[in-house]
């Protein structure tokens, strides 16, 4: 059984264990609550590209790999970059075993990538 933690404030532990304000203790509910609070206080959500995320945290190999695969697949010039990375067939690439979005490997090709019965991606 999960302990009922009385968490108050705006700490990283809120993200892991849930917010005290909502009945839902899941990490997703806590993150949504935090986002609502940020929006209510006037903070804007900034969407960064994988390259920008990597530059902001240069010590992270995970962010560096994510950025490299994103760049390699043409960034967001074509749709479904996540699917294209997950289904990358260049297994000779040193990053292949570590590429992100591997959960999408083998999933059906998104309709936005199919044109006249042929796949556009690599
Ligand atoms: S794993 Fe695929 S998408 Fe990632 S860098 Fe290598 S070739 Fe590019």
Model description:
Helix 3 (50-56) runs antiparallel to helix 4 (61-72). The protein is mainly alpha-helical and 122 residues long. Helix content is 37%, strand content 3%. The protein has a two-stranded antiparallel ribbon. The chain has two domains: 2-40, no CATH class; 50-121, no CATH class. The protein is globular. A hairpin with a 2-residue loop joins strand 1 (114-115) and strand 2. Residues 68-69, 72-73, 85, 88, 90, 93, 95-96, 99 line the site of iron/sulfur cluster.
Q: List the secondary-structure elements in sequence, H or E.
A: HHHHHEE
What structural class is derived from the secondary structure elements? mainly alpha
Q: Which percent bin holds the helix content? A: 25-40%
What does the main sheet amount to?
Answer: 2 strands, antiparallel
Strand order of the largest sheet: 1-2
| CA-based shape | globular
Number of strands: 2
Radius of gyration: 19 Å
How far the N terminus sits from the C terminus, by CA atoms, comes to 47 Å
**What are the low-pLDDT stretches, counting only 5+ consecutive residues below 50?**
1-20
User: Quaternary arrangement of the chains shown?
Assistant: single chain
What is the count of helical runs? 5
How much of the sequence is in beta strands?
under 5%
Number of domains: 2
Summarize the helices and strands and which ones pair or pack.
Blueprint: H1 12-17, H2 27-40, H3 50-56, H4 61-72, H5 81-86, E1 114-115, E2 118-119
Antiparallel strand pairs: 1-2
Bound molecules: iron/sulfur cluster.
Residues 68-69, 72-73, 85, 88, 90, 93, 95-96, 99 line the site of iron/sulfur cluster.
